[in-house]
Amino acid sequence: MTQLDVLRVFCGPDGGRGNELGVVRDGAPVPQEASRRRIAGKLGFSETVFVDDPERGQIDIHTPSLRLPFAGHPCVGAAWLLDVPELVTPAGVVGARQDGEFSWIEALPEWAPERTLRQYASAAEVDALEVPPPGEWIYAWAWEEEAAGRIRARAFPGRDDGVREDEATGAAALLLTAELGRALNIRQGLGSQILTAPQPYGWVEVGGRVRLTHSGLPLPR
Predict the structure, then answer these.
(1) What is a GO molecular function of this protein (predicted)?
(2) Does 106 map to a domain?
């Protein structure tokens, strides 16, 4: 029987928070895109990963409403769970490595879905934001300590599928890193942490802590 693992990706320093991720380790029994989207919708996570080849690290990423060629926290979580040196996504081959308590991926900014990066004057302004209505995908951010690369951020997907705010979003962090051209330490959502670092030739590393919360759950019918 095809089963589901649930992870939390980009956990805070205390191991809490992080963005929940569903991983279907054997995607073969659910080959159709519509069926995968239906399962992702019933699970209600911001993204769900279907593993099509665990040895090659080939994955397929779905939100409750669409399929994504690449996404940050699903890749970080899947790389940690599968323990592979790379992931094969429709966008391209994502490098992966483990470094102590952190799981890292390396990707190109152009693989990330389009996001509006909206800077605010202070972390307090970001904290006070109301969730906007569906429409634009907004990554709201402000410097907490610019000299140290510390950022406060919140993410509003703008989708009408029940996910009003993302707790932690690696793709948006990747785009912000590429725009600012420096390593970042991002505090997002209610206490998640995302680390990033620019790499040669336009690549960007994105990393964070991953925790397994449930293993071997049945898929929703």
Answers:
(1) catalytic activity
(2) no
Give tens-digit pLDDT for 10-39: 999 999 999 999 999 999 999 999 999 999
Pairing of strands 58-62, 48-53: antiparallel
Q: Are residues 91 and 124 in the same domain?
A: no
The confidence score (pLDDT) of residue 160 equals: 84
| pLDDT tens per residue, range 35-90 | 999 999 999 999 999 999 999 999 999 999 999 999 999 999 999 999 999 999 99
Give the whole-angstrom CA distance, residue 27 versus residue 176: 32
pLDDT digits (tens, 9 = 90+) for 80-139: 999 999 999 999 999 999 999 999 999 999 999 999 999 999 999 999 999 999 899 999
Q: Which of 115, 149, 146, 142 is nearest to 126 (CA)?
A: 142
**What φ, ψ does residue 52 adopt, rounded to 5°?**
-95, -25
Alpha-carbon span 127 to 175, nearest angstrom = 21
Q: Residue 203: give the domain boundaries.
A: 111-207
Question: For residue 167, what is the domain's CATH number?
Answer: 3.10.310.10
Percent of residues in the chain assigned helix, strand, coil, to nearest 5: 20, 40, 40
What's the total number of domains in the chain? Answer: 2
- Quickly tell me which residue has 């805070």 as its tokens: 12
β-partners of residue 73 are none
